[in-house]
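Collaborator request log, item 7. Partner lab (contact: R.S.) asked for a structural prediction of Class I SAM-dependent methyltransferase to inform their binding assays.
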Amino acid sequence: MNCRHCETELHHVFADLGHCPPSNSMLSAQQLEEPELHYPLKTYVCHNCFLVQIGEVKKAADIFGAEYTYFSSYSSSWLNHAKRYVDMMMTRFGYTQDSLVIEAASNDGYLLQYFQEYGVPVLGIDPTANTARIAAGKGIRTLVDFFTTKLARELASADQKADLIIGNNVLAHVPDINDFVGGMHVALKPGGVVTMEFPHLLNLVEKCQFDTIYHEHYSYLSLSTVNRIFASQGLTVFDLEELPTHGGSLRIFARHTTDAAKPVTEAVRALLAREREAGMLTLEYYQDFQPRIDTVRTDLLGFLLEQKRLGKRVAGYGAAAKGNTLINYCGIQGTGLIEFVADVSPYKQNKYLPGSHIPVLAADLIREKQPDYVLILPWNLREEIAERLGFISEWGGQFVVAIPELEVYSHAPSTSRVAQV
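Returned to partner:
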């Protein structure tokens, strides 16, 4: 197997999570009686460009097919994040009705709707037909397709080059990252801007966020590696922001390398230096990750088994992909250690988690069933979820998170008291 960016042969394993089903492949009751495909979930680090990557064992067209269960608009915090971004970009770059904003992986129009409110023409590109239908219902023009260099050429030939190309949490999802970035170069106007948001590999390693590894994520990205990939395709990262989203993300700003009007900022130089000082350009940085993963598994299983012994009931909250990675790696299947997982999305309710076959129920059933513990699976939304479910304190319920280490805590409207376990 060769590196997706530089073609160097891969030898160095970063994390091996065994065999798992695709993390967003929710199951119906009928499918529980059918065979379920599992794929290796092993990541490697390239010793040349330090791109951390998974083997392409499940094709993108199969993962992001006609029906996809993740809808961005079901997270209020993510909607607020998108609105703040749009307001910032309008202020900074002054887009008008003569501009064009293109978003790759536009999902259900959660972000482009805010540009549309400003009167700025938009185009969404997303391969999932069901999310695209929701976007179309909001009046957002959407192409049901993958963003590729081929599609970018078609847009350019149709005079559809963009003043702004956006990609939020998509750069990690593309199997051919060179082609994807090259497509942005083709589809971007000479003075245009690209912004990409992606979880920062530095945080994944330092905070043991191994549950963000799943088949839908082909790449795990540092600024150093992204900078190299963009440069190879004629684009230059000229600015960045560090964001709290998804456990710590980067928002990069890129432009054509020939566009000297946008100088590279000190923020870019400083983070490149910080990554270098942390050791991210050495193999040693990546070689002690597996034992830390195994500690998380041991601690979570120990907690769940102890609650089962004591007759306590544990429910999960948030049928997120990262939660499925965690649950499947821990081997929590058919054990009753987690009775059910609650989720606000009707597209996930009354289905079953892949691999573990834990039932997914409506979020309001938490109050009815009154579990002793609620395991928050999308830990990046722990504050939003704890506020939403603060009522579990009425019966003495407590919250649990497993990443980066096991925590059990009680929530009150004004404060949280957190106990390390």
